[in-house]
Amino acid sequence: HTICTSGTVGDALKAAGITLPRSTALNYAASDILEDGMVIEIYDLYDVVIKADGKEIKKDISGETVADALELSGVVLAKEDFAVPSVETVLKDGMEIEVFRVTVKERTETEEMAYETETSYDSSIYKDEKKVVKEGVNGSKAIVYQDRYVNGELVESKVVAENVLVQPTDE
């Protein structure tokens, strides 16, 4: 630990015998004037590619995780969005990070409900003869689906509710 009281951050590093390789960054510019209580931090830089929203961002990032890389690149994940590798993954040089935008939408469709045919036997008609006592009427129901899209492509659709609108009338 070398303590310098005057000069620049670059001067302090030189006095401490520290030469920075290209793959590192500082929390201050080398030309910043030293101030009392200043702590100079050296970070590793990782060359990463971030693919998000149809764009490709190539950047040297000084963070530790994929979440840091996204934040430092101005890429915000919404509640359902995700990245591959995951946001907890430790950065590595040459890493490719892909962001997937997730949208969840609900839709309602009306579906016909078929009526049932009830058969009863009556001694007033022949065995192989049929007589309709009451015409059947189809009913309908509303089905609510939850559709999940990833980068605009439908990947999952599930039924979340069904409501009978009109009960079928049996024949």
Radius of gyration: 34 Å
* Sequence of strands across the biggest β-sheet: 4-3-6-5
Q: Label the structural class.
A: mainly beta
Give the integer mean of the pLDDT values.
Answer: 89
- How many strand segments? 9
Order of helices and strands: HEEEEHEEEEE
Shape: rod-shaped
The helical percent reads under 10%
Number of helical segments with 4 or more residues: 2
Beta-strand portion reads 35-45%
Largest sheet: 4 strands, mixed
Uncertain segments are none
Task: Report on the architecture of this protein.
This protein has 171 residues and is mainly beta. It has helices spanning 9-15, 66-72; strands at 24-26, 42-44, 46-52, 55-61, 82-84, 96-100, 102-113, 139-150, 153-166. The strands form 3 sheets. Strands 4-3-6-5 form a 4-stranded mixed beta sheet, covered by helices on one side. The longest helix has 7 residues, at 9-15. The relative contact order is 0.13. The model has no long low-confidence stretch (mean pLDDT 89).
